[in-house]
Sequence to fold (966 residues):
Amino acid sequence: MADFKWPAIEKRSLIGKRISRLDGPWKASGSAKYAYDINRPNMLYGRMVQSPHAHAKITSIDTSVAEKMPGVHAVDIIHPVGQEVLWAGKEIVAVAAETDDQARDAMRKVKIDYEVLPYLVADTTPGKATGYTQQLNEQTQGDPDAGFKAADAVVEGFYGIPVITHCCLESHGSVAEWEGDKLTVWASTQSVSGLSAEYATSLSGKGIPTTAPNVRIITQVMGGGFGSKFAADTWGISAAVLAKKAGRPVKMMLDRDHELSVAGSRPSLYAEVKIGAKSDGTMTAWQSESWGTSGPSGGANANLPYIFQTGLAYKRHHTAVHTNIGPARAWRAPNHPQFALVTMSAFEDLAAKLNMDPVQFLLKNMQFAGERNKGFGTKDYEQELAKASELIDWKKKWHPRGDKTPGPIKSGLGVSLHTWGGQANNSTCNCTIHSDGSVEVSLGTQDLGVGARTVVGIVAAETLGLPLDGITVNIGDSKYPPAGGSGGSTTSGGISSATRRATNTALNKLLDQVAPSLGVPADQLEAVGGKIQVVGNPAKSLTWKQACAKLGASTISEMGQTDRSLTSGNVGGVQMAEVSVDIDTGVVRMEKMVAVQDCGLIIDLKTAESQVYGGMIMGITYALFEEKVMDQQTGAHLNADMEFYKLAGIGDIGELVVHMMEGPGYDDRGVIGLGEPPTVSPGAAISNAVANAIGVRVPTLPLTADKVLAALGKGGMS
Amino acid sequence: MANQPGKEHPEEELRKEGAQPDKSPRSMGLGRREFVKMAGTAGMAVSAVGVLAGEGILKAEPVAPSQDVADAATTKLVGPGPVRMTLNINGKPTAVTLEPRVTLLDTLRDHLDLTGAKKVCDRATCGACTVIINGAAMYSCTVLAIDVAERPGSPAAKIETIESLAPDGQLHPVSQGFVDNDGQQCGFCTPGFVMSAKAYIDKHPHPTYDEVKASLGGNLCRCGTYMGVRHAVVEAAGKMAAGKGGRA
Fold:
């Protein structure tokens, strides 16, 4: 019997190697078909009329002219008369027409009257948001007042990070097609297996009775989600309604402005922080008064300070601000980047006051981080801080706050660390071995671009002793066994362990079948190098094809599920940034950034490193450029386009270095997802590097030139 | 992104050398608004040939040059209804019947099922829609199809889409570079990057990393694949120059 435990390092032929993603050739040749690329015969194009008001009541809707416009085949009232809209961009009416342009023409002829109501879209202090605030419970631990009395140094600071958006390059949307009472949806989704039931429930509620088995979801590839694409969403359901009404397939993908203003944002967080420490750097108390908005729902308590909580006296209070902006959605590593920015900035400011190297400050306070991460002890952070310091040459390059060298270009270093849970989702895998030797591995999971398809293929091939191209990986279709949605770095642990269990069980069935012909019990056989062989005796073997031929007319089909003995959680990492700041212009430039990251057993080193590079670059982007700018006068999102909602380009990121912690100890934790953690630290590390360069804190992200100059005017060197 | 002036300015140097492909629609003559305005006033042909309603996805087939746009010089106006025109796409004359307001990107994606070029910003910012027109990388979202169609006295512009790079299933060296160096994650920006890189390498066979950074400044990625992209393009150029990578 082959063992389902992960193979020992010396026995791995594929796991942990640098392997190119399986769908790479489709993507790089333009042949990959995303939901946006699906063109069905007789397909119509859907467009939605959106509210221009941030808060209003709909008093009338007249679609009569639109319905008669050329090419129009169906109209769907999404949000009827009498209902309120709570943000500008809320979808009211959808139309489907022969061409996209005709749908837009018709959209402009829909007449909607509103009673405009008071609104708040400014991301402001609670004092200026009367009537829109909700005080959450103050939380305390220990005796912070005593802690501040015992402190040798106390600093107070203000830190913040505005609302940003997901800006998925493939906008949200789908193509919906009915065949009788069966609906097929090509969706850009992070939740292939989860959507069928949601569609069925929502459509039944709109008078189109259907059930989950009648709704098929297909997502072979998808163009980015980052946490914003778990639901069927208003537009998904409306596309299905329009398709039903018109009797023709409907494609409805969001326009860019719609995508940016409505289809996902990350909550803001601002905090006034007071923090005290002994002269040796040991913290004695933390106090924070924080606020932020996640749109109409306000938002949750701020879990501050980040990571360093165990045994530290703290007092914190948070105000949720309810605003009329598009609702927040999970954004890669929800809340951690905000908590890290506030916490690590305050730590660095305190270290500066104590004339301490911030790395030494973190090391001095590791006692407070200990139990925050079960199974992930302080020793790991110490190792990672040491490795990152080495890679960025911290000891040589770091200087006390304020670069004293002459000239306008000031250099600085900053550090931050992070953690993430990432417990595996519940996934199910089927492994089918055919008598011709072909192998299918099927899961209703999805590949957001992280390499999920490749992870499944590698695990299956490793388990069966086959090359990667000996496995057919079937994912991205709800007809396959259900798998969890892809969010929170839960996918790799779920799909890799489920695949390992399914393929291992199938292999053992095969070994049972071929054991008689090799003259040994099945438990003395192994699958290695494309053969089934007697353990330790390669001469006694069958090729994989010969072995499978013994199945005759039968087929092996076995299931496997997420196995928590093959996966765990609680990863960590350290990042260090080196920046240069021009104090004449205020421009911050990335010079170098180093990430040291652990994630348990790595399946594919190449795509794992890509996840970390990607997290760093998304982090550089929100640190330097991103902000959802709202206009309180009109309630509108002002930069709902890619000209003014800025993403980092290829020349903006400096030199990036990734080091994965792996080997004994790390591998023993099993497979853990990696999408979230590397996105957490960049904002804090870069903000700290800028403070180290110019001698003052730029309080809020993004670190734009105007803010840098303003901070310098308040006490910088210029 | 152009909002980050650095200590060095490779972009400006490249522009001085004329190395930077001009993706501005103005370099093509007209933007879409200007064209639509002009279509109503300047001497071009009215045509009501080919009603889109009911046809679904238009079938494209290589045909002889259309008369409708070709006759424009002798008549008054084209549009706003559908106009028959002939494009040169991937070496093939391709007839389509479209309203003059239809962009090249929508023509490719919605009418010819060439979906490699992606619609992302739709406003000439992100580069996901990049195609090569007469040898230069261009944003197809901000070019009208009629602007690159055959006109009286001038042939249709030569449009290369990513679908032309691997006609026999053999990956182009640039695409292969993106695969080997993991210069893609979700992959939605990738075809645009590949086409920008190909256009650049065609004119600059030995790019440095800094030149690659400058030449791809007009393409944006959200997943954060730039490290792999840099390696992909330098490696692909090296292989193409050495003649090892097949077509150059």
